[in-house]
Amino acid sequence: MTATTPPRYDVIAIGNAVVDVIASCEEELIDELQLNRGGMTLIDEARAEELYEAMPPARELSGGSAANTLAGLATLGLQCAFIGQVADDQLGKVFRHDMRATGIDFDTPAREGEPATGRVLIFVTPDGERTMNTFLGAGQFLPAAALDEELIASAAILYLEGYLWDPEEPRRAMRRAIEVARNAGRKIAFTASESFVIERHGDDFRAMIEEGIIDILFVNESELATLTGEDDFEAGLAAVAGKVPVLVATRSEKGAVAIAHGERAEVAAVPVIKVVDTTGAGDQFAAGFLSGYVKGEPLTRCLKRGAICASEVIAHYGPRPEADMLKLMDERL
Question: What CA dihedral angle connects 20, 63, 94 and 102, to 10 degrees?
Fold first, then answer.
């Protein structure tokens, strides 16, 4: 369906509302705590408390994949709104404050009682690799009843994160949001998030791709292989490219590729002096790409925007931009 009214927002996202707890550590601690090095593991509240006690001094920053992407988009001057579930607790208040202070509209009511607001305990080794341990908390209980359907219909793009597809209640909410957005003639962007999510819900994702529900798909090289069953990167691209209007595949230091309506573009990664923390690199790449896409910029330029945003965030701790991103774009594009 074609949209009949101009969008109020550029992007609205539904995602995990979590606070990132980030600490630098040595390789030995990863082994000692039996963590999944470089990956993301879902944990319960007891394990979250155990890992928190074992962490070196840490920084607390609002995070969540889709929320991070919105933060990047907001710093680039786009109008954004967020739907996600926090608890009525201190971390929930921190998350809500951080979103609003960034210029993102976030009005989903807080959830009373247990569980607590979600958190991600992130261990960063000297090479900048991050090992994430996620307690979803209140976020996994986002109900369809919490959706503001008028808000969803008013955004040019509905952006969904794969992480939130895992719990049943928010998965139902996201399916309803897709219906609302499509009925309003809006675009659906989806980030696969992590290979383990695809392993659990790949049939759902492949069905949405086959049915033409996803307009913009973000994957990294590993996720593409898991989604398609193709270890060869080019074979993986070929398996998906004709089924989604816009496919964006990132390859860390090897850059990124996008294929849109038969057109292919590639960019190299933007060099950084030192990789400090890779947390949020994919989230910010998506922000940079979408910031160009909503303005109708050429595909290569959209990719360049993504590469610039990713390079900024990996040069410091935390998953959200710290630089003046509009100035950075002017300097580097």
Answer: 140
Q: What is the pLDDT of residues 75-111, one digit of tens each?
A: 999 999 999 999 999 999 999 999 999 999 999 999 9
**Cα dihedral: 89, 91, 94, 99 (round 10):** -100
CATH superfamily of 9-17+64-115+137-332: Ribokinase (3.40.1190.20)
Q: What is the pLDDT of residues 167-189, one digit of tens each?
A: 899 999 999 999 999 999 999 99
Nearest by Cα to 173 from 193, 147, 152, 138? 147
Distance in Å from the first CA to the final CA of the chain? 34
User: 303: which residues sit within 8 A by CB, 6+ positions away?
Assistant: 248, 256, 257, 258, 265, 266, 267, 289
Nearest residue to 106 via CA among 134, 82, 131, 139: 82
- Domain extents in the chain: 9-17+64-115+137-332
